[in-house]
## 1
Amino acid sequence: MIAIAQVTPVWYLVLASVVFAIGAVGLLVRRNPLVMFMCVELMLNAVTLTFVTFSRMLNDVNGQTVVVFVLVVAAAEVVVGLGIIVALLRKQPSATADDLTVLKG
Amino acid sequence: MFAFLLQSVASTFDRPAIDLHALAPEFVLTGALVVVLLVDLFTPKGSRGIVPSVAGIGILAAMVPVLTLALDGADRSMFGGAYVVDNFSLVLQAMFLLAAYVVVLLSTNYVAEGDYAEGEYYFLLLCALLGMLVMASSRDLITMFVALELLSIPAYMLAGWRKRDRRGNEAGVKYYLMGVFASAVMLYGMSLLYGISGSTLFSDIALAVARGNGLGDTTPLITLGVVFVLIGFAFKVSAVPFHTWAPDTYEGAPTPVTAFLAVSSKAAGFVALLQLILIAFIGRDDVVGPLMWVLAALTMTVGNLIALRQTNIVRMLAYSGVAQAGFMLAPLAVVGSNSDGARSAVVTYLLIYAAMNLGAFAVVLIVARKTRSAEIASWGGLFEYAPGLTVLMTVFLFSLAGIPPLGGWLAKFVVFRALLSPDLTAGGVILAVVVGVNSVIALYYYANVARQMWMNPVPDGDRTPVRIPFSLAAAVTLSVVLTVAFGVSDLATHLGDLATFLPA
Amino acid sequence: MSDFLRDYLTVGIFGLTGVALVGLLLGLGSLLRPTRPQPQKYINYESGVDPVGTGWGQSNVRYYIFALLFVMFDVEAVFIFPFATRVDAYGWFGLIEMGIFIVVLALGLLYAWKKKVLRWV
């Protein structure tokens, strides 16, 4: 049988950092507000994975508590964010982040 | 603060001791929130004006327990140290409440006269205020995160409040996307800090971060965690290069909300930075110091240079706010050698900044009621038909520029004092020079508005006097009294010195 | 072989059996049935209705507020489950705390109701 390394918690940490990076890069590269918003969710999921892994490694329940709070806050952000984005898309049905140029930073 | 409840699941449940007096400001404000919501739901549509009064009374009522706690004087710590009432939290809570009260005064006419949902506006304002109160007391990652989101999520909605206006939508979307990105970065930093220290309490993190062991050699991990968390809050205080949302959001949002974001929300970011840097990361000033040095120098320079070119007064105030944030970040760069001085300087600056900036926004609101424009050119000849307002605006502008004997001068002075004492360091001296140069640059664009008001002719020749509604007059009076009082007395520095943390 | 790998072997065998079963049935069917291709048969199946427009047509967002409300209240329940597992240990203290929590949630529902977003349009 092929020797397969045992999956250690570090693997999860690495996975989480990769997912976080994908989300961060996606947010900076993609131009559709909805897709950018999904990238943020990806980043938050990476965070929860990190918390759970550390919680498991340290045998401490606090990390899992944080995850519950992150979940709820993420849901609140989804609801508010969708509201804001729908308000924008009603005005400009095909808006991308590049079209947001009425106000120039 | 609920972490304690869930943590006990594994063992037998010990009922946490809840100090009702310590939590009274938050409870009173929560009660006010509920009343605002119910009043809005159960009063007939036409009866406007009730909700802002209820909100204002609620904020003042929440001030009462803050004052009784201050008179009582005892430091209180709850939930295993996650939630603390100390001098620092009381001074800042009082500031948040007062600033929010002024924002309610600024909003009353603006919201009532426009096509806006009134009940929800004040409900969300109070929600954000509640988050700020919790922020001032939080000494734990979970509590701080919940407080941050409690103040940010309503702010996203308020920023996009003009939902039938393209600029309003744009302001909301930009603020939202940058805000959630920042909180995700900050959370990732928090997760690393938790992994290193095995605890979410600031006092435990301080031990682990300074010691630097834990799960093997974790120094790079600690640095990464510290930097990520600080960057998350750098977005909140609109430090360069994380400031890009600020001018657009400030211009697109309703002006009272802009005042709220520029003063209260920014102050909440600084409160979090102070708590993190001075309690949790105190052992790692080798990471925090240089980061804050670079952020401070960049923030004030870039903010000032862009402010020079603005023609819209709200955008100019936005960039001036960015520059002011740079001045407030400066003392944090020398936190390693002068941590007490840095804390005192930032708190003093925050108090003075709140007074003068709210005052400036109040005058902008009053003038915009007549001119219907936010262009600086439309301010021409203000002295000819509104001499009182012109004098007041000049006071606020010169205070922002740092001219004695107004409050802003004292604010700059405490920053210099923190940078140059107890002994001169190369970093401190260079940063002090940067602060000095920037103060001179800033004088130019503040004086430009003053010149416009005093010397230029009225653009459209309309010299009818400006009508000032009562609530706006009250807001301006409160701001100008505080701005002058902070300058001529040592009230602000005294409060700054007083705002100490509960020793861990 | 470790227990870890043995577990995955079971999963693997199960998966292979599933694939083989589907392949066998489809293979038998193709051997037995007559083959007469017509363009009508290649239209996407839309419950008996001929599809109109492209797959990127926009649909009515009539239900989007229901979805948002559902997401919000659904996720808030995550606080109630850990509480429910230990309700006896928390005693009256826990019941009162959870009561306050649920009352606050109910206020949100009351708001949605009064603003007439719960009405089926």
## 2
Amino acid sequence: MSALAGAQGARAITPDPRFVSAWSTMARVFEHRALQYRRTFRASIFGSFGIPVLFLTAMGLGLGGYVDKSADPVLHGLTYLQFLAPGLLASTVMQTGSFEATFPILGGLQWNKIFHAMFATPIRPADIVYGNVAWIAFRLSLVGAFFGLAIVLFGASMSALVIFAVPCAVLTGLAFATPIMAFTATQRTPDRFATLFRFGVTPLFLFSGTFFPIESLPSFLQPVAWLSPLWHGVDLCRQLMLGTIVDTPLLALIHALVLVTLTVVGIAVALRTVEARLVKG
Amino acid sequence: MSETNVAPADASSQPMPPREPARGEARGEALIRARGLTKRFGEFTAVDGVDFDVQPGEAFGFLGPNGAGKTSTMRMIGCTSPISDGELTVLGMNPRRDGTRIRARLGVVPQADTLDNELTVRENLVIYGRYFGLPRDEAARRADELLEFVQLTDRGKDLVEPLSGGMKRRLTIARSLINEPDLMLLDEPTTGLDPQARHLLWDRLYRLKQRGVTLVLTTHYMDEAEQLCDRLVVMDKAKIVAEGSPQQLIERYSTKEVAEFRFAPGIQETLDGQFDGLAERIERLPDRVLLYADDGEEVVTTARSRGLHPETVLVRRSTLEDVFLRLTGRSLIE
């Protein structure tokens, strides 16, 4: 009867919140997401491996078969599969990150309101932001790792640095996820998500050097690619996977800085918008 | 968990052991103290300078219609909405500074369900215990006891979604108890439930009250307030308009009995002046006439002798609804 009795002994087990660290409250939010994920884990893992296999087969091998016949010098002697793989890795992780920052976050704030339920406990709004960012990072790591594995199995990686391409792809995903999370916290319906994906995520997916080098774009459009966070992620992953990073370390550093900046700014804004939303009720 | 506190096999049917007093109770301090408490949203004032105290072990109610400021008040007490003005002390602490520590000792039942539909009934309880920092095994043990208490043990493994509204409310109440709260905040706990589900819920809340758990609830149901509240404040348009026990309020603002007359359509409008002097107070509502007197039957007899022939006559005791009508000129549920 202890839970109802409020017995002294049981009370002593409840840690005094003063001694519960910020780390542990954040971890509870992560734990909640993990508990939810257990139910869809199998399907999700299958998708995480199946999708890259489908994409690499259809586009890398199928479409690549035609591209490679023309032997365009813009590919610098790479097979299309070798060119495409790092771009697809970064782009897929980016899309997963964007999705994870929209519907699941809006759900917790608006639909089943579980973030409000958390806010009625010692969990703080910042814990909810950090816990979800940590969860998204974990999810993206899974997606990225499976994609990386598929790339290696397809023989599309030219360098052992592919190991570092996965965390860079995760960083690319977070650079999208955290600003989008900040935006999501200002929304009450998913109406604008369609706009976000239609005019933001999808065009970037198509024109950030994933499927063709940005050198193939009209020259006036090429500088625009620099504005695309995805291009920074794609190029970073490509440099790592092709091993060319040793030739242009400064460019790689700029790529990483752009992505880290976006991630950090996204978190900073999300801390404000999520708290404002939870306080508003 | 001490060895002396072993759960009975059927927790719901056993008398509960007395509860340990909350911190501060021994010193006779109020668990909640509000002075000039105010909440503004831009130009709109949702709560306008209210004063109240909630004592340890009492069931305290905020009664009022929708939009009276009840939920805003509850959210300030629950430390999820900062106060705009005035003073508020909860469990001896300041919500501005100690929100996290206060929330650790509250049990909150929000107006709308905030259960996780993707998890099972039992998982909802265990993870909620984890938010309070309970070890996993302790959270699981409490979850099982609480499922027993709200009579949901056989639904523990089911997902939340197919549960009825009443079951979801019971689960939300169980969830709010997982941290053994010193103070429970219930925002319209039975709104939208059918009568049977409401009575079951009231029974559980009554048991908690018997055990000395301090309950603070909002409601716009007068029967709920009468059933559960030792003391209540009536709120209207962001202000407290009266305070007391249900009985005190009825004695102060109403008469012992009420005679309700209903006339055939169109008749009531023709009866101007005919009720004069029949009762201490007369309220003419669109669909009926309420005559307030200590002896309702006498009013009926006198009215008949005056040639008044209502279609239906009901003599009943005064309720908080009558108090509210008297204080605000309006019904609780519009």
